[in-house]
Protein 1
Amino acid sequence: MYMEYVTLNNGVRMPAVGFGTWDVRGESGRQAIIQALELGYRLLDTAQMYENEDIVGKAVRGSGIPRKDMFITTKLYRPSAGYTKAKKGIERSLRALDMDYIDLLLIHEPYDNAAQMYDAFREAYEQGKVRAIGISNFNMEKYKDFIEYCGVIPAVDQVESHVYFPQLDLKDFLKSYGTVMQSWASFSEGRKNIFREPLLIEIGKQYGKTAGQVALRFLVQNGIPVIPKSVHTDRMRENLSVFDFNLTQADMKRIAGLDKGKSLFGWY
């Protein structure tokens, strides 16, 4: 399966479409991840909060795909907030994944002591335990404050981004500093029935694509990598098939009109 990549600010290449693993657990979860890998996914996005890093690691080892061909993202959250706790948290993730390194390590939310967490992240990066470091759910104001003292500009800021709240201004702002904005909730996680959005269906018919594929293509074409989650084989395959068509400027403008300018989750 063809894949496009984005290059992070330290030269590391990250797949433009990955597989989100939120709420993917147990043996059925492991099988779903293996299936995703068989279909062509190479970026797996997990987090300590998801309580499934071990499943992700087992799926990677069971897939037979070389580790060097994989891109594994995980995130540390509140129990790891602080320098010492983050150092221990990084080791905990490495053990759970049963891996020598993590490709992308993120601070899950803008905690009060995120700076101390990031000190531990920088050390792990310098030691080769992590290939790239970044943040998640930092809005423009939080990001501005963070980069004043963080030392290493985040490679990624993973935030809510979908056709109803794409955050294109934030994407452009982050890009000006060298940070890639990555989307979570690319399908709005059920807050809106994006798959029945009339405009997306209409545009999709022009290309023989589904509303979901158009929604993903809008983000990817705007330079926003995505990590959609699905445990259904057909949907997994669809989500990867967004590189064989291009939306016109007119299409992009019409889809941009769906932007409500407001989070569906209350994060921001």
Note: The radius of gyration is 18 Å.
Protein 2
Amino acid sequence: MDAMTPPTSPLLDLEGRVVLVTGASRGIGAATARLLGSCNARVAIHFGKSRAQAEEVAADIARAGGPKAAVFQAELGDDDERRRLHRDVVATLGDPLLLVHNAGIYVRNPFEETDDAAFLSRWRTTQAVNLESAAHLTLLALPAMRAARFGRIVMVASRAAFRAETDAASYAVSKAGMVSLARCLARNEGPRGITANSICPGWVDTAMARPDVAARKAEIEGEIPLGRIATPEDCARAILFYLSPLAPYANGTALGLNGGSFLH
């Protein structure tokens, strides 16, 4: 099944449920939005700056015969923007009972930094966009999930959550926080029929990663037993698994999706 192939099994049918995918104008988020649309989800496509790309993702879903998707802009580092995003999604599509927290930024922030104010600014921005937004948007969605006795939450974390980073600790810590957040939600919300899980990709062929991949392609691929970096579609399929009827008993897990490059 490619990223836009309609489901052939009821186990992949998302039954017209509303799913909010953050950072869905490109990369993993766009591939996920397209795949979920092909599986009968009503997709709320969040974007920060790339409206044209987000609208193209919505058009792709429509061309493939999926339910009408909608696009929503918000700066996820801002509390009020997140509140507005949630209100707009509910008003346009309905309550999102499926959440994919994919939006994220990667900023090098080494401990060798001599300007502590610059270090803290990068640190706080990374945590706000990557981690705090996931917690806040989930909190806003939980009342409807609890009322429905159903909810599925997926964090797009990273191999860095476990492997750590030397010059981007703020990123690694935010991703480790997302893994822990999913586990906290799994324990707290499981009794209400709500699950939370994480995927933890390694290198993925996205715009964020391409400069490093281009400079170190042979080295990076040499560390991966499967011999290639992941595609956004590889990640989208893992996300679909957690959202679909295939995984009703998966709760609090963190799926290493790195081709075997880091095992723990």
Note: The chain has one domain: 10-254.
